[in-house]
């Protein structure tokens, strides 16, 4: 036997003797996800408007690794039939994709709806439904029309109404066929990342702009949710929520417990508490903390803008399920006196005086922020149930980042397997997790990392004008999972 055979043999044996056939319930759905700017290309096709990513990467081409951009990306604007075929190969029940706001509304406003933009998404939605795959549609995945960015973008409070107007167009066009909606993908990414020079609009404004954006994303989401409730739900009976990024945080020592709770409120609570908590509004501790900081810094108003009582009510409870994006876990500790802190959510926070670390017992993925601790997902799911009492959770993203494009992506398979196992445990505990949407269907334009890292079940050849897609071992594995409705197929992928 070769070394590989021995490993496979051991997996087979352990799978046989140690697992009772764990099968996901029939209502649990498997899917994969993508996002418009990361895959579509066709940046200037037909009458499409410019997005803030188009503008950023055309005017500052060095911002993304290797000067890359999404002008062509996976060329899904032309190759969407192949994308659907891949969903079929994978046996998916859900395909999550996003609509490009400037492709549908070139000016950003509903004064003109692009006929080609409209048809593109009609074709995609109809093509999926023909194959029995349910579309899960994100209205906004980071690609704001540049026209609206020029007017202040997410820092302008009027954007809540602009977004609602856009949402109404989308619900009107596709609401008869799309039953699961996500308004915003990761408002944390829109604001905390986008105003920290890590993403468009690529602004350095973590003190003020980031928090204006925070409040406005909450209002925009709420307005879109409410208008669906009033104008569309009676006819279409769909569900609306948003996708929230949650890294799971644990205290490094018992001494770090309090600062860990503050960290969770800071990076996660600011985007979840206003919507999902019973009382609504900002998480109290972080609001207090930031108000005090602003005073000390000489501001006359809180940097995190206060919600009025009316706004708290507007935002509170605007969800039909919880959409969770989860990738990894970090340990939190107080910074040592004089310690230098790299202020970036994967490493630490200067304002909170905290440093984030990996536990030594957690294996690292291919990048240093990616610790593999699947139990973190289980704890996360419990925390969401305990903290917000959510009755239904859909995992809208979970996936493994790689730096080489090896087709034998053994670690990704293991990552999926281990996370599904923890989801299974959570379901057994009575937590209503209704589906798992893997990030991502195929390699794509990974924002400022360009094409240097990949998350895809399918590899894409970006030097090939045809953008050929090739299944990785993880794609074969996942297609067994979706059909057998169980994760114990690690031994299968390797030999096909
Ligand atoms: C679209 O952009 C490409 C560069 O990405 C350029 O070569 C082409 O001329 C543009 N097409 C139109 C119609 O402007
Ligand atoms: C961002 O702004 C801060 C001050 O607000 C400044 O200290 C820092 O150097 C800026 N960073 C970059 C990369 O420009
Ligand atoms: C789980 O969520 C689904 C969808 O909302 C619902 O139909 C079902 O009753 C829920 N199950 C439990 C146990 O709460
Ligand atoms: C990618 O495509 C290019 C151009 O067609 C080709 O030369 C190259 O061999 C392909 N790479 C792989 C890994 O298939």
UniProtKB/TrEMBL annotation:
Pfam families: Glyco_hydro_1. GO terms for biological process: carbohydrate metabolic process. The keyword Nucleotide-binding does not apply. Residues 1-19 form the signal peptide. Keywords: Glycoprotein, Glycosidase, Hydrolase, Signal. Belongs to the glycosyl hydrolase 1 family. Homodimer. This is Myrosinase 1-like. It comes from Mythimna separata. The lineage of its organism: Eukaryota, Metazoa, Ecdysozoa, Arthropoda, Hexapoda.
């Amino acid at each position: 036997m070769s070394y590989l055979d021995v490993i496979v043999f051991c997996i087979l044996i352990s799978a046989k003797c140690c697992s009772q056939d764990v099968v996901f319930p029939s209502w649990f759905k498997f899917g994969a996800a993508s996002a418009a700017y990361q895959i579509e290309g066709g940046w200037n096709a037909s009458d499409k408007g410019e997005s803030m990513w188009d503008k950023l990467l055309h005017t500052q081409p060095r911002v993304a690794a290797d000067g890359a951009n999404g002008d062509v990306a996976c060329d899904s604007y032309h190759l969407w039939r192949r994308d659907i075929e891949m969903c079929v190969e994978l046996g998916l029940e859900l395909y999550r994709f996003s609509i490009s706001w400037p492709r549908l509304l070139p000016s950003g406003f509903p004064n003109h709806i692009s006929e080609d933009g409209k048809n593109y998404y009609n074709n995609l939605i109809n093509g999926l439904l023909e194959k029995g795959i349910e579309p899960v549609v994100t209205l906004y995945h980071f690609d704001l029309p540049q026209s609206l960015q020029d007017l202040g973008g997410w820092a302008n409070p009027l954007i809540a109404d602009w977004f609602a107007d856009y949402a109404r167009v989308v619900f009107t066009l596709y609401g008869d066929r799309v039953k699961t909606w996500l308004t915003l993908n990761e408002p944390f990414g829109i604001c905390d990342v986008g105003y920290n020079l890590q993403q468009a609009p690529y602004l350095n404004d973590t003190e003020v702009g980031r928090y204006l954006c925070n409040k406005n994303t909450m209002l925009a989401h709420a307005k879109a949710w409410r208008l669906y409730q009033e104008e569309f739900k009676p006819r279409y009976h769909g569900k609306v929520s948003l996708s929230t990024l949650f890294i799971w945080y644990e205290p490094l020592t018992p001494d770090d417990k309090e600062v860990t709770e503050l960290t969770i409120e800071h990076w996660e609570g600011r985007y979840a508490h206003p919507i999902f908590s019973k009382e609504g509004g900002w998480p109290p501790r972080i609001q207090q903390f930031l108000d005090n900081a602003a005073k000390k810094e000489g501001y006359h108003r809180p940097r995190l803008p206060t919600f009025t009582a009316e706004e708290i009510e507007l935002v509170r409870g605007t969800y039909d399920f919880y959409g969770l994006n989860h990738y990894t876990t970090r340990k939190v500790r107080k910074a040592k006196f004089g310690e230098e802190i790299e202020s970036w959510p994967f490493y630490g926070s200067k304002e909170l005086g905290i440093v984030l670390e990996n536990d030594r017992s957690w294996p690292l993925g291919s990048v240093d922020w990616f610790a593999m601790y699947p139990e973190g997902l289980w704890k996360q799911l419990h925390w969401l149930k305990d903290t917000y009492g959510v009755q239904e959770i859909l995992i809208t993203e979970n996936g493994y980042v790689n730096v080489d494009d090896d087709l034998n992506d053994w670690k990704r398979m293991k990552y999926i397997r281990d996370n599904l196992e923890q989801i299974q445990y959570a379901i057994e505990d009575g937590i209503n997790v209704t589906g798992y949407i893997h990030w991502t269907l195929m390699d794509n334009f990974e924002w400022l990392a360009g094409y240097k890292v990949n998350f895809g079940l399918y590899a894409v050849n970006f030097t090939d004008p045809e953008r050929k897609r090739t299944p990785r071992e993880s794609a074969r594995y996942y297609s067994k999972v979706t059909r057998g409705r169980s994760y114990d197929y690690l031994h299968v992928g390797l030999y096909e």
